[in-house]
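Hey,

Quick one before I head out. I ran the complex with zinc ion overnight. Inputs first:
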Amino acid sequence: MPFVNLNEILPAAKANHYGVGAFNVIGEPFICGAITAAEKEASPIIIAFAEVHESYVPLEFVAEMVKYWAQRARVPVALHLDHAKNVDTIIRAIRAGFSSVMYDGSTTPFADNVKITQKVVAIAKPVGVTVEAELGILTGVEEVAEGKRPTEDFYTDPEQAAEFVEKTGCDALAVSIGTAHGMYTWETMLDFNRLQKISELVSVPLVLHGGSGLSSNDFRTAISKGISKVNVFTECALAAGRAVREAVNDNSKSFPDFCQLGQKAIEDLVRSKIRIFGSCGKAV
Ligand SMILES: [Zn+2]
């Protein structure tokens, strides 16, 4: 089927208290692994591609590959641009056929984040493309290693979140409640009270970034308190890397075998996440 956008997936997830995974892809093994997993679990799926990953592959090429699999899939597939900091990239993604985009103005001052998100919504909405925005800062694990562990100064302010969504008209909001990008080297302490407050004040579905390495309990609690979209990347990349490393000294195996092993590892990991998020059997 053709791509769906976030508004065709997330409102049902929000109403019925389950989460839908957004899995970042770089190339074919990621795309095929994730969509196969969604089909086996009869789950809707969001395939995400991050602006920074254009260092590996152009977004136009990713769009064509994902289109090929989505058209043949029996489950709803959204193609979402992740963490775009440049409006030009967003316009390219929409032209290439992405059904959803994220503008990440989280590190810019509030007023600028509002202004540019409004501009992105004005570009995307008329052509049926949904917009995710972000308020509050998500650090990466590299920054955390330099001593910048997430602190409450970076967390999303509930009242400001309500004002932001009202002013921008975004379709989904990424929040900062203690997660970070990459794998955690510390015990996570998510601020669920803050999340609850945000979800009471904000009407649009909320997004949790930095899902790699969180416990099943953290996911379930976050989803029960208002998270509808959960982003996962690092764990998929590491699982595929492990599968390839285990086979690398087997001389009977060559590159296509490594691609298949990586793909199977991604498929298994995505299936396990779909079950934790509760979206299995929800494809309609
Ligand atoms: Zn993210």
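Residues 83, 138, 181, 209, 231 surround zinc ion (CB under 6 Å).

Talk tomorrow,
K.
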